[in-house]
Recover the amino acids of this structure.
């Protein structure tokens, strides 16, 4: 989409106004780590805007993150800016390399590139520490030695102001001494915290002297045991943004009440000469909420840990690794993000909107193939045994330039079980004794009957074919039939497992009325032994196809082997849930 056609949104309006006003025109590089390490200190930052995607490496990315990724990287692309991938790894406890790797993969898979702008917040620990000393020296921070309970009790409520800590008036020298001893490891976890000194009576509780450093004797995945005090997220994040010359720091609405602290902190640090101006601005937008999924890290972890799903990349999970295995496309995610846009008010998007974006992309790009998912034998009694021939099937009906492919035809075929009945209901045009149908891209056949086992189940259907009815041959269109069914030659077919995935939850808002685990859809996956068109045997992992009449499928990237792919259904051809509701 060209820039001018992009739907406007309130964030683009802010960026447009900032650019018109030249608000970020003269940003210089400080001597900070991160970007400045690759840039000349003091040089002008030439990127028009800088945004960032700052995941905490404590879980796998999900569909909500995809919205944020497409928003931040999309703005940078559209405005000639840069978007940083920054691991917000200031909390030593829950972070792991496994998550870092998966996040890198997921952002790349979505089609975005951070170029050289990949950073770790933990590389700024020394800077954050030095800035804290500066705040202490200026009387903007103090060491509090109240217990956690006392601090909580003295914080006040929405209607009552907080009470100043008895330690609030320690001198800068006392504070500096204590803070340095906290850093040196002299105290136990929780013995002291460093707090910003703002206003215990503020109407915004976040400004009632928030904690900015705590003691936590824990090993960090990047800095090891170098530190035993760690900055709080609300302190670290604005500093990370400022050190990286971020212009627009976009986050979800729950941080709105933190914005005054964001501005207070950076205002102080700029006044003390710690960070450059112009300062980044925080902008909040409504997070993505989708029906039929859960997007909370805690719930996703629970689904994986308690084995309700097969792992983080289970194709039913709304993680990006799961989506990729499921066969969803990155382009479909980008389209979805573009379509839903960004707003300031929370809303719930119907999952079918997401599926429709995926369907659109898959319809445009996926070659067509034939698959029989519930196979029943069809015997053409008047077709000579041992004979075979080729029929031609188009690779994409709307894209004739993709050509046709040969599919073998022989005496015994597989058809869908539902394409035959002994006694047809009204309006049924497929196979039943005495009726004629076209075997798509092949011949017209007339049904003569069926074989049954002892229990009365149909085990084979019989028919005769019309030798002059082959699709594409002169005169073949004189056969007028209402039914058109698909098939594969039994002798040539590739027998493979196909997983029919469906929604993981049976209700639009899992957990709204009962424990979300009780809302799990018991039929969210069904594995069938299918009979596939022979060429599908050569599908490479992640090749996507439309199986005619069935939907869009992908060769599973984990379980497929060369010459032995297994397939996952990404999405059906139509929204089957719209009817069900
Ligand atoms: P946590 O509770 O662990 O902080 P989180 O979902 O906020 O979980 P982060 O790793 O902090 O995870 O998120 C990285 C970025 O993705 C943040 O900027 C966050 O605002 C954004 N994000 C997270 N969930 C959504 C969502 N549902 N919609 C849009 N953006 C989201
Ligand atoms: Mg977060």
């Amino acid at each position: 989409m060209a820039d001018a056609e992009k739907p406007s949104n309130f964030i683009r309006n802010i960026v447009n106004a900032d650019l018109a006003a030249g608000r970020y025109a003269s940003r210089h590089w400080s001597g900070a780590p991160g970007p400045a390490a690759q840039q000349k200190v003091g040089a002008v930052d030439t990127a028009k805007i800088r945004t960032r995607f700052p995941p905490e490496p404590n879980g796998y990315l999900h569909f909500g993150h995809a919205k944020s990724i497409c928003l931040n990287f999309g703005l940078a692309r559209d405005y000639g800016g840069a978007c940083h991938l920054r691991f917000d790894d200031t909390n030593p406890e829950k972070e792991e390399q496994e998550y870092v790797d998966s996040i890198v993969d997921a952002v790349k898979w979505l089609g975005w590139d951070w170029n050289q702008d990949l950073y770790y917040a933990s590389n700024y620990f020394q800077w954050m520490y030095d800035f804290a000393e500066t705040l202490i020296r200026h009387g903007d921070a103090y060491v509090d030695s109240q217990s956690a309970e006392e601090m909580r009790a003295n914080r006040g409520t929405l209607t009552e102001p907080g009470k100043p800590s008895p330690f609030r008036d320690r001198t800068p020298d006392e504070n500096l001494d204590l803070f340095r001893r906290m850093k040196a490891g002299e105290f136990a976890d929780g013995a002291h915290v460093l707090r910003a000194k703002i206003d215990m009576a503020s109407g915004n509780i976040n400004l009632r002297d928030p904690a900015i450093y705590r003691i936590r004797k824990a090993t960090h995945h990047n800095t090891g045991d170098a530190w035993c005090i760690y900055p709080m997220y609300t302190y670290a994040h604005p500093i990370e943004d400022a050190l990286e010359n971020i212009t627009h720091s976009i986050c979800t609405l729950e941080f709105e009440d933190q914005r005054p602290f964001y501005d207070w902190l950076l205002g102080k640090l700029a006044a003390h000469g710690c960070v450059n101006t112009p300062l980044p601005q925080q902008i909040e937008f409504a997070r993505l909420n989708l029906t039929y999924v859960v997007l909370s890290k805690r719930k996703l972890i629970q689904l994986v840990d308690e084995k309700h799903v097969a792992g983080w990349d289970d194709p039913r999970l709304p993680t990006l690794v799961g989506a990729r295995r499921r066969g969803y496309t990155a382009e479909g995610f980008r389209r979805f993000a573009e379509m839903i846009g960004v707003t300031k008010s929370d809303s719930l998007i119907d999952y079918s909107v997401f599926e429709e974006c995926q369907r659109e992309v898959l319809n445009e790009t996926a070659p067509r193939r034939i698959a029989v998912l519930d196979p029943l034998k069809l015997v053409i009694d008047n077709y000579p045994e041992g004979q075979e021939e080729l029929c031609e099937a188009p690779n994409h009906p709307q894209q004739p330039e993709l050509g046709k492919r040969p599919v073998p035809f022989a005496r015994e075929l597989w058809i869908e079980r539902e394409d035959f009945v002994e006694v047809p209901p009204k309006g049924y045009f497929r196979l039943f004794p005495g009726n004629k149908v076209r075997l798509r891209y092949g011949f017209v056949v007339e049904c003569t009957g069926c074989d049954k086992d002892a229990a009365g189940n149909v085990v084979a259907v019989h028919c005769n074919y019309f030798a002059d009815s082959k699709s594409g041959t002169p005169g073949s269109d004189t056969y007028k039939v209402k039914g058109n069914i698909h098939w594969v030659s039994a002798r040539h077919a590739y027998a493979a497992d196909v997983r029919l995935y469906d929604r993981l939850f049976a209700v639009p808002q899992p957990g709204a009325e009962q424990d979300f685990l009780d809302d799990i859809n018991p039929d969210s996956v069904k594995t069938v032994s299918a009979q596939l068109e022979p060429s599908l045997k050569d599908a490479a992992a992640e090749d996507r196809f439309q199986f005619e009449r069935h939907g869009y499928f992908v060769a599973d990237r984990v379980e497929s082997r060369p010459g032995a792919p297994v397939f996952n259904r990404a999405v059906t051809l139509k929204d089957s849930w719209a009817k069900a509701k």
The domain at 133-229 is CATH 3.90.800.10 (Glutamyl-tRNA Synthetase; domain 3). The chain has 13 helices and 25 strands. The first strand starts at residue 50 and ends at 53.
